[in-house]
Amino acid sequence: MNKQLIGSVVVIGGGISGMLSALDLANSGYYVYLVEKGPSIGGVMAQLDKTFPTNDCAM
Amino acid sequence: MDTYINKIRELSLKLLKKKEVVKVIGFTKGTLPMATSPIAISLEQDVEKLIFNSTCGLNLANYIRNHKGKIAVIAKGCDSRNIITHIVENQIPREQLHIIGVPCKGMIDKTKVASLFDDDIIEFSEDNDTLLLKSSSKEERLNKQDYLRENCKLCMHKNPVIYDDLVGDLVDEQTLDTPYPDVEQIENMDADTKWQHFDKLTKNCIRCYACRNACPICYCPTCFVDESGPQWVGKGQDKTDVNTFHFLRAFHCAGRCTDCGACVEACPMDINVRDFTRKLNKDSFELFEWEAGLDLTKRPPLDAYSPNDPNDFIK
Amino acid sequence: MPLKYAINPDICLKLTKDKCGTCEEVCPANAIDYTQTEEHITINAGSIIYSPGFTPFDPSKFDNYQYANFPNVITSMEFERILSATGPTMGHVTTFPKLPLNPKKKKDKLLAQKRKDPKKIAWFQCVGSRDINKCDNPYCSSVCCMYAVKEAIIAKEHAGGDLDCSIFYMDMRTPGKEFEKYYENAKDKHGINFIRTKVHSVTENPETHDLNIRYVDDFGQIVDDTYDMIVLSVGLEISEETKALSEKLGIDLTSNGFCKTNSFEPVTSSRDGIYISGVFNNPKDIPDSVLDASAAASAAGDALSSARDTLTKSVEKIEEINVVGERPRIGAFICDCGSNIKGVVDCEAVTEYAKTLPYVEFADESMYACSQDAQSKMVDFIKEKNLNRIVIAACTPKTHEPLFQETLANSGLNKYLFEMTNIRNHNSWVHKNNPDIATQKAKDLVRMAVAKAALAEPLKEEKINVNDSVVVVGGGLAGMTSAKSLATQGYSTHIIEKNNQLGGEAHKLYKTAQGEDVQTQLNELIKEVENNDNITVHCNTTLESADGFVGNFKSTLKSDDKEFELEYGIAVLATGAKAFVPDEYEYGNDERIITSLDLDKMFKVNDTKLDTINSAVFIQCVGSRQPDRPYCSRVCCTHSIDNAIELKKRNPKMNVFIIYRDIRTYGESELLYKEARNLGVIFIRYEVDKKPEVTIKGKNLFIKVTDHVLNMPVEIKTDMLTLATAIVPRKDEKLANFFKVPLNDEGFFIEKHAKLGPAEFATSGVFLAGSGHYPKPVNEAITQGRASASRALTLLAKKDSLFTSGIIANVDPLKCSECGVCVSICPYSAPMFATEGRFEGKAEVNPVLCKGCGLCVASCRSGALHLRGFDTNQIFSQIFALGEVV
Question: Would you list the domain boundaries of chain B?
């Protein structure tokens, strides 16, 4: 049986990883639903000050 | 010097006769004693016009661009280095050049010689290391070594670096422990003295651009001082504009200047323009182990991008 | 700390008692809507990516550290906010950080008086990690060592030189790229103290609230010390909520709540169609999460490849109006950014001033220029007033330029007829206390922007034709994985492998850290790759050249003695790394002295010699973490421990010793370390300046090492010595030059961005996977293989809409002196000499290769090069406009 595939993906979690998965998929031709339980995306990385080892600003 | 002249004429005649080159670029006698001027010879009978002596201080590399057909050029050590710079910078292909190399014994400082006389010099000749000068009031016999130009005194590349023929045996090169004593002297000045030094240096500049025109590496179709859109620098005698011209020109020469002295030779106001360019030559030497015009395969350090640049800022 | 404000419905008076309603009144953007309620939406989708993240461990339950009771004991997450300029103390490191800046309660006020700038801060590592005594988290959280070092360095930067920072740790785990150097710098350059001990408990001076600690140092001495603040480096935990949802989704978890995966499909959950990424997959840092993200996208996409492009929507394009030759008619839009700008700058005055400037036809102030309605109003104004240049005075172009440019495009204007000036970050934020000067500066900035915009010209973006076949250099695990994913999504892919078979270094491995047999799965993968119609495998083949640029590469390949050419659009560099050949510990002088890979080989063939061994020793960090090779090779600790367990399982009576410096079994590999200790493997630590000594005395092999517990030399007689050798990069400078990609000091490839671009290069169209990036185990190599494929796919999918930037250099041939500086100085080989036409010999710039960096423009002595969009006359006009007196 050839099941009809649906060309969309649900991404659960809007942290750095979820956001980038969503972007990659949307840019490669899939419709994406990004689901985040909080009021904004960004996750823990948005709360960090700088990142190692480059000391770049996390935002 | 006569042997040099004979050899230059002999080689030039041969090249023109065999049609190996369409013209020969060399020096000819000027209208005044101690003056020589560049000349391009294309007829066999004109080779007699070619001369060479201790007053041929201009740089013939300045005249080798934009010719059709193969040309021959007379080249002292510094001329040959600028020829290399020209080849590297795509101004002329090597195949288009026949280089008649002249092992150089130094050029004389005409201003210094002239200052010995109150009236005009009417005759100049030389015999090995002796200069003979005559004015209507007196005669002087001078030791050439005492009247060499400053750049020639410090020259470490008297022999042509690249040539097809030589007009005489190679001369001994000197090696100097401190090749930049003049720059060091300026570097050691405190800020105020330095400021005064350069203030005084350019005070007499009349913006005639003779230095730029004599410089072989100032070959841009439109020099930044002549450009009006954008106007990089004001056209008048304002001190800032005058200094901007000299500073920027020096920076354009960084890593390319061979210290041939043509700029100083050409300056009607006796400004030692080399004070600007020499500092950058010293920096090129110390930071990049670079002297301009010695290598046909390498570009000047400031002209090239390298991912392995030793400077930290590039990473 | 959410980036947007939200109403807590349990507390809101309006929602609970229908009172108040203040927020609706004061919100200038009318963003408050009390009528919103919970909605249930059903979504039909082809795949799910589950990326629920982690929660920081809550140390409240640890009575020995008194986090809940001592105000100066805080968590690393709290410290992170204290360091942040947008945090509660605005980046100022202070004691009692959790108190409000201006406390209202009397008790808090008294405390606040005791506030001081700390002089001594301690970090306690492994709080909620590697701990089954006080909590149930036996795993290592992977990130805490590095973030503690970072926090200490930044704290010192914020507080100045005399802040004393000490990190109390068990093992320093810095096994990531450039991490070891960061750690070394922290010690040597920043003067951070590292103390190897676990502090038992913290007490507080009730008066000053200073914190007293007591610990046993490396020499067994008891030390008492006092600190102003203690930061608990809390671990990463999977929340109960996530575990519950996982159960609902029907995916298998490890005993610690992380998702169970196979090393060869590291982002695939046990449930078909559900892919996972991030910390939920295993504790990991940002770049590894970023790799997971792309890898999960690749896996989810692979499963749906036949339905690609069926549900996406395309944007309608608006015809561009030709404004060339028209007199500039500038529209200036001044943004209040709520009170962000208007709170300081008199925006009305700036708007009025803008109207007086030359060429300005129209000026308008808006509360939020970036809001939806302000954008549509802007489109109307552009059309109504026939504007042909736009100036926006608002925030930073870094975040908002694309948005405004889209608005221009929507009104039919070329998007480069636009200038943005930052009157927020560069003005209202930094001149808060000087509103008059700030207003004046805003006017200056607007005047400069107008002067530049008046000279703006419409710029053309060149279309890039993309050849959609891919070359993967290197047929190891990472390369094969990348090729497989790209082929599955329909792209013709070539694998260039210099050896005579696919598989690379993985052929030498016995087991993964999860215990899977490598050879079985490797051979399956090789078979899949070889049987894929979209993949062409070129074994015994080397890459001899590479020219071109994204979408248009051309290479000469050499196979045996035959040369052939290949044209392709995308390159993936997966050239891997190799094992270091030891030059110490008597390696090569005795057949009982072997490397980790030699031991794997013995396991693979079930060598009978293994049965004769009664004592085995492993020496760690052979060739790693020393001055000439300062990085950590990442995999060796886990590898040796895994092999030690294998030996112990074969012969429980065998004496197995691991001589190490720090055990770096990050993530759930920590469980192997625990298992090894339970099985009786003996761990002896050494310092790099006191390496173990190996001697061969007749038939016997002796290893002498100073035991760190006894502080005495011990001599071990052994039958086998395994050296855990470094992984060294291939340092392929030729390949790096072909694709204009950089190598770091050690010879690993440098990725586009250490955090956000780990699977790609700065050179467009070139991607990176595997140990050529940094040493990594099987699952991480495969993750990066998939991630590189996903990143490449985003480019390939845009095949028909790939354009260059309009901001590129161009040559005025009449001024060009043909000196070739631009040709030699360009890092991207964009300028070249014209080979034909009227301007033969003059320089010209290939718009596809040009990145608009301006290096050639600045280097051109003849003034022949111009940077479109930043032309010299535009810069001059800005400078002159600045000098004008208002």
Answer: 2-107+148-302, 108-147
